[in-house]
Amino acid sequence: MAKRTEISIRRVPTLEGERVTLRALRPMDAASIYRYLSDSRVNRWLPRVPKPYRVDDAHEWVRITRDMAEAGTDYHFGIELRETGEIVGMIGLNRINAEDRNAEIGYWLARPYWRQGLTEEALRLIVRFAFDELRLHRLFAIVVATNTGSAALLEKAGFQREVVAREKRRIGRAYVDEYTYGLLLEEYSPRGYRSRGTKS
Predict the structure, then answer these.
(1) Rounded to an integer, what distance in angstroms lies between the CA atom of residue 175 and that of residue 141?
(2) Given CB 3.0 to 4.6 Å as the disulfide criterion, which of 4, 72, 126, 178 pairs with 165?
């Protein structure tokens, strides 16, 4: 019998929304990832992304996402625009802790698609996957204080600001605060996260 702490899913599933589909990356997606993530206005919020971002980095990322899913440590989804089939961003569960049943959510979206509700839709899909399929207990996200759009998105999705780390991040020449937002399983069900579902 499987232990309670194990994560049983070992691949990136497909999660279908109204305007976006979350899916595993394919080698051909590297071109879109490079085109959009090399934008400094997008990658400035992402401390783990190499700068400058190269096309080789995008190809390597596609490979790494598959390996992490097979290991059950991370699940990274391409945000596919259903209308075009193009990957226009990424959203993922990082550093899944199977013992404590928690994970960090991270995401980015191409600048031409900002403020259209696409990241909100992707966020609700991955939250549903984390709680319903992976049976996690807590999700958290980390944003810098100057990234007001991301902070507002998390609050709209029901996340609560839990921690303020003063002047933790250096952006350019300035030190800025970093916020940790959290969402618990018991806070998830009433908030309208039900969507069209998961497809194998």
Answers:
(1) 19
(2) 178
Residues 6+ apart with CB under 8 A from 172: none
Q: Count the Cβ atoms, other than its own, within 10 Å of residue 3.
A: 7
The b/e string for 148-176 (b: 16+ C-beta within 10 A; e otherwise) is: eebbebbeebbbeeeeeeeeebeeeeeeb
Looking at residue 170, its pLDDT comes to 87
Instruction: Please tell me the predicted confidence (pLDDT) of residue 200.
Output: 36
- pLDDT beneath 50: ranges in the chain: 1-4, 190-191, 194-200
3-state secondary structure the chain: CCCCCCCCCCCCCEEECCCEEEECCCHHHHHHHHHHHCCHHHHCCCCCCCCCCCHHHHHHHHHHHHHHHHHCCCEEEEEEECCCCCEEEEEEEEEEECCCCEEEEEEEECHHHCCCCHHHHHHHHHHHHHHHHCCCCEEEEEEECCCHHHHHHHHHCCCEEEEEEEEEEEECCEEEEEEEEEEEHHHHHHHCCCCCCEEC
Whole-number pLDDT of residue 3: 46
- Confidence at residue 33, expressed as pLDDT on a 0 to 100 scale: 97
